[in-house]
Amino acid sequence: MLIIIQSLAEVAETWSHLIQQGKRDDLLYSFHAFSLALRETFKDQHLHNCLIKKLKFLKQTGSVITYATKFKVLMYQIGYGQDTWADLFMNGLKDKVLDSMTSVVTIDWRNYSEVKKLAISLDQCMALRFSSSKDHTFYIN
To answer: What are the average pLDDT values for consecutive 10-residue runs of the chain, which has 141 residues?
Structure first.
């Protein structure tokens, strides 16, 4: 951590002196705590607002897997805790996937991992069913 702190310049250097002087000892021993504090102290509010706007308009247009990947990247960039992910994730799903999910009652709807797995599974089943129905040609005499 000291190597990182010593390489900071300008305003960040002043901030790093507070850490070295013992005012924030906790940041010397945890990279996670250090990176969160650094991000919080020097975050670009305009960028943060743009990311939130992107999340608001992020919708599933293809597969759930593609949507989930884009969603996860945005969530990490914004820094929201995973306790909020499930609701926000469901907001962007296609209606047909959401409608299929409502019939499942044995799921913790607050758990992002469970919700994502269910959405991917249902999406893949629907895609398989749709593609197999296109493969059949019916002739009526």
So the answer is: 55 61 67 75 76 94 95 89 90 94 86 94 89 55 42
Write the DSSP assignment of 88-126 as a string of letters.
Answer: HHHHTS-HHHHHHHTT--SS-TT-HHHHHHHHHHHHHHH
Residue 61: other Cβ atoms inside 10 A: 10
d(CA 96, CA 45): 35
Give the tokens for residue 85. Answer: 């992910």
Alpha carbon 52 to its chain centroid, in Å, reads 11
- Whether residue 107 contacts residue 115, with contact meaning beta carbons closer than 8 Å, is answered with yes
Residues in the chain: 141
**Among 123, 113, 121, 72, which Cα is nearest to 93's?**
123
